[in-house]
Predict the structure.
Amino acid sequence: MDPIDTSIFELFKIGPGPSSSHTIGPMVAGGEFIKAVQDLGPELLARASRVQVRLFGSLSATGEGHGTDRAVMAGLLGQTPETCPPEFLDGLADKDAAHNLSLPGREIALRAQDVIFDSVEHDFPFNNTLVIGLLDPDGKALFERQYYSIGGGFIHWEGRIPPKRGAPAHPYATMRGLEKIIIERGLSLNQVMLDNETAISGLPRPKIVSGLRRMIRVMDQAVARGLKADGVLPGPLGLARKAKAMFAHYRSCPQSRGRLMLALDACAFAVAEENASGHTVVTAPTCGSAGVIPACLYVMRRIMDLPEENLVNGMLAAAAVGLIVKRNASVAGAEVGCQGEIGVAAAMAAAMLAQAAGKPLKIVENAAETALEHHLGMTCDPVAGYVQIPCIERNAMGAVKAYNAMLIACSEAGNQHLVGLDQVIRAMAATGRDMSDKYKETALGGLGVSMVNC
């Protein structure tokens, strides 16, 4: 098996919600398409009349509720996920407006009608597929490319040449392989992750650490914004924000036995509600699960009183778990259900908590395994296609499970834990393969149906 050569900063990405596979990925695809168009000859470009985007799979089934149409338009118009203002996306909601799309030497109009919600069932190799084409006045494709949004904001396309990157200094593809390197080479988990990131991305250690601190800061800002906001979330559900009231309850009950749990709940709600509003979050590993790790970070900093160095170390452990899961299974709800989003986020957060508390590697693994094991089989069934019900509450439940998984792991002897992280990842991958597509982000099953039919 090829070793993991994905950068930490491909796993943790800054961008707009509500879904990394439905917003960040399609925005990246739109931007890549426009870059590819720049290399076409002037004669062909002179015949171009419009750009058309066709969405398939869950991008079609729930893309409108997820803002996929606006996201891909923003990418075509030159926006990037990390810098796109939420108000720019909001401005693309006008179905009648025409936007100037820049081609070499000319501009053409881009309208909401140019994004088509196509078949939910299809024969493409990945569920979330976009087909973007440059068309002539007769609707004939002058240039066309298929893009696959595979979760966490990652994009593939046929003929893609992966960016050049260095080989990892300590190659591994599984948790067992990582543990073997750490034991045989006498290194810490943090050293392995930092050495590999430097080898893969070329970034020196200080830049890696500052990058992780930036991710922590953006997560903290999302918590702060969400805890202050109130009102109703966008969309037809009329779902009221709850984080502000939950946090007020947390602050008013200093002696409550459930105070720590209330803090986790409020902070996870805060980020998940920001995500549902299309505001900036960090994929961890996805937008739909972006509230789990920030909630745990809040508790680590303000209740456990851990210094920032410990938080950075914890983020490295979280990245290790997320990258292993991505290599051996998936982090996309469209591929394996919500076990790949909230389940993986909880596993990453549990590992982060244990690592930041200075626990040994076996406890870090056991915490991650326990958290993921108890999300196995979780379906992805967004009501009306919006990342609100059940997604927001699931972030809070994932954060609480992550903390409890860490407590369980710290309370048992490491060698008494019989299930390994690699084993539960294989179980998750198999469960995802067997799961009906109606439970994979299409809103065609589970709560996505029962809520509508009641």
